[in-house]
């Protein structure tokens, strides 16, 4: 817009100068001369303004280019705590200054037995918090999250409301030992129960296990004969 106005003013100046050269009366020439100087002054101001605008635009473009060149790298989040109510399992994820992010920079995805939190562009880092293999199923459509000061609270909706979770994930549950009172015989004889357990191990084991048990059994029988 400025260049076209400058060109128009230059044309006006040229026209006034032509009139000034043809004017015969001194008073008319003085009026034309004053008007010419006014227009020339305005042209100088517009040229300066146009130059400053060009410099500002260039600086903004350079700043935008530098900002776009900043690369973020992924960081796995491990600092969290959890609690529960009858309806929800609540996860408390610590993220400093997370409240400064825009809404489109943070989000959660939910599945029936997992969830993932993404906080993008926080201090030039993309923070990722993932939980897989939840102890019980959740309802993804009823799950949600809230951004707090330096933290995010995630609400996992329980499918079975009122059920108390002993652990957050199934991987945290320790397997029970494969042994019970059934391994003893009906009269409670420990040696008989031990034999039943070895028999079960022999039947379920691989070739190496069977050879080991057979060898132990043979050595035990020979030792018993020697004792007699």
UniProtKB/TrEMBL annotation:
Recorded GO CC terms: cytoplasm; nucleus
One function term, GO molecular function aspect: S100 protein binding
Domain SGS: 153-228
Locations listed in the record: Cytoplasm; Nucleus
Ranges for domain CS: 75-169
Keyword vocabulary terms for this entry: Acetylation, Cytoplasm, Nucleus, Phosphoprotein, Ubl conjugation pathway
GO process terms (BP): heart development
One of the Pfam families matching this protein, by short name: CS
Primary location class: cytoplasm
The protein's role, per its UniProt record: May be involved in calcium-dependent ubiquitination and subsequent proteasomal degradation of target proteins. Probably serves as a molecular bridge in ubiquitin E3 complexes. Participates in the ubiquitin-mediated degradation of beta-catenin (CTNNB1).
Protein's name according to its UniProt entry: Calcyclin-binding protein
